[in-house]
Design brief:
Strand content: 5-15%
Number of strands: 8
Structural class: alpha/beta
Largest sheet: 4 strands, mixed
Helix content: 55-70%
Strand order of the largest sheet: 3-4-8-7
Distance between the termini: 56 Å
Length: 501
């Protein structure tokens, strides 16, 4: 289904995908994040994408980005498979509900068609969980090797995205009750793995590493701030035509909580995974609700734990539901008819969901997405090897115009991160922020931005948005005197530096 999604002609939302792809290419080219360019994420995704970045160096960043999208499609599908395997001890009903739910939630399609952090983080979290809850470890003594490998995988997951902290705390809490002091092996392996990989990046630029990875990323506000909006996002349907209202989202989570309460009333065997998911789901949801910033795509991180908990809860209630159904005096023929009708309805529903989610793209993506026709204009107007500065580096990746033959060309992969470093999301642009961009423009031959030079605001539809670049009067005047427009249409404007007089 996800591979099919890659064939659907849509507008691509490139910002985050472009940042991670471009940063990985610069990394394998010998540039270090935090030291040579701003990167407001842990370094894990750069290491994961390094093989794809090497492919890009040989075959071009355009083909490398396509390769990265295919890899992401497989990893997102793998997440659904890993979750299915994690809940296998509760039988087919739990496996079908958990795996199918995660695979078909519309927000998953958003990740399967780009390069994002969440699928890779979730993959490592689920692999670590499976290592702990192996067939030998579910009831018996957990080996030191299992605890160490499980902890290491969680540490690597945190190197991709800090959201791994919540399932880590949930699993650690469960392990305290099961193996007591030996939980320190799990904690030590997680912390040691994180520190060992992060240490070289920290030593290369200690101040920038701490500021960009921890301070700027964890303290910035933004996104949907309302708790009710975040609950809507966590249904996985936000931005679609069937998105619930705030009231419906609250009722859905309330009903879900009641089902869980009934399901967990009785004690059953093999409860390790059940307890882990019972802890991980609310911890992750509360973490997302309480976080200083939240965006719609963050909801994918809660999805595996919510769908896993749903599958396990329904499986725990299945025997009681079956006894209740058998107590109803219905003929055998009618029971078969109802079973066949239910199976047919379920199959049609799944088919409809597949058709729907593979064409799911939010209005925001259609507003800010970039078409293939626009990308070709960059290739036509900018010679290979030119020094180009982008406000959205993904277009440069797709146009094979990312890397420059000029060793002094600045590597600007994340203008949002640059603005965060200067507090631009909260205040007027600082003089140093303006000077930073002026230095970028002085070194560049071309500048590609998503909006024309009309000040610090630009219009998209009926709304107005702040530009990522500090277009005050001074910078705008300087830029206008040194650059001229060579191509412009909505979401793509190419400027070339004026020839010396």
């Amino acid at each position: 289904m996800y591979l099919w999604q890659l064939t659907v002609p849509v507008f691509l939302q490139l910002y985050d995908s472009g940042v991670y792809s471009a940063a990985a290419i610069h990394f394998v080219s010998g540039e270090l994040p935090y030291k040579d360019f701003v990167f407001v994420q842990p370094p894990g995704i750069l290491l994961i994408m390094s093989p794809v970045a090497l492919f890009s160096r040989v075959f071009g960043s355009h083909d490398g980005f396509i390769f990265a999208r295919v890899v992401s499609a497989f990893v997102t599908a793998l997440d659904a498979s890993l979750l299915t395997w994690l809940v296998r001890h509760r039988g087919r009903l739990a496996m079908v509900l958990a795996g199918t739910g995660l695979a078909l939630t519309p927000v998953a399609v958003f990740f399967s068609s780009g390069v994002r952090l969440e699928p890779y983080c979730i993959c490592l979290v689920l692999l670590g969980s499976l290592r702990i809850f192996s067939s030998n470890g579910e009831d018996g003594e957990l080996t030191t090797k299992s605890l160490a490998i499980g902890g290491l995988l969680f540490g690597l997951a945190a190197l991709v995205e800090f959201w791994a902290f919540f399932p880590f705390i949930a699993l650690m809490t469960y392990l305290v009750t099961r193996c007591h002091k030996r939980v320190l092996i799990f904690i030590g392996a997680a912390g040691g793995g994180f520190a060992a990989v992060a240490l070289p990046f920290f030593l290369a630029s200690p101040n920038n590493f701490v500021s960009e990875v921890f301070v700027e990323q964890l303290s910035r506000p933004g996104g949907s701030r309302s708790v009710l909006w975040r609950l809507i996002d966590m249904t996985g349907l936000s931005g679609t035509s069937i998105a619930p209202t705030a009231e419906e989202a609250v009722l859905a989570f309330a009903a879900f909580s009641i089902v869980i309460a009934f399901a967990y009333q009785q004690r059953l065997g093999h409860e390790g995974v059940d307890v882990f998911l019972l802890l991980a789901a609310p911890m992750t949801v509360i973490g997302l609700l309480a976080a200083p910033t939240a965006y719609t795509d963050y909801s994918y991180f809660a999805a595996p734990f919510l769908f896993g908990l749903l599958g396990i809860s329904m499986a725990r209630l299945e025997p009681a539901a079956r006894r209740l159904a058998n107590s109803v005096p219905i003929s055998k023929t009618l029971r078969k008819f109802v079973a066949v009708l239910s199976a047919l309805a379920g199959s049609l529903l799944i088919a409809a969901l597949v058709l729907y989610v593979t064409s799911f793209y939010s209005i925001g993506e259609r507003l800010y997405g970039t078409s293939a026709g626009s990308i070709s204009q960059i290739t036509s107007h900018i010679p290979a090897g030119s020094c180009v500065v982008y406000s959205e580096v993904g277009v440069g990746v797709l146009a094979n115009r990312l890397q420059s033959s000029n060793p002094h060309c600045p590597s600007v992969v994340d203008p949002v991160g640059v603005s965060m470093a200067w507090g631009y999301e909260l205040t007027s642009p600082a003089p140093g922020f303006i000077s930073t961009w002026r230095a970028y423009f002085r070194a560049a031959q071309y500048v590609v931005v998503e909006n024309p030079l009309i000040g610090s605001q630009f219009n998209a539809g009926s709304s107005s948005y702040r530009s990522l670049l500090p277009w005050n009067r001074s910078l705008t005047t300087w830029f206008s005197n040194h650059y001229h427009l060579v191509f412009g249409q909505f979401a793509l404007y190419i400027y070339e530096k004026n020839s010396p007089a």
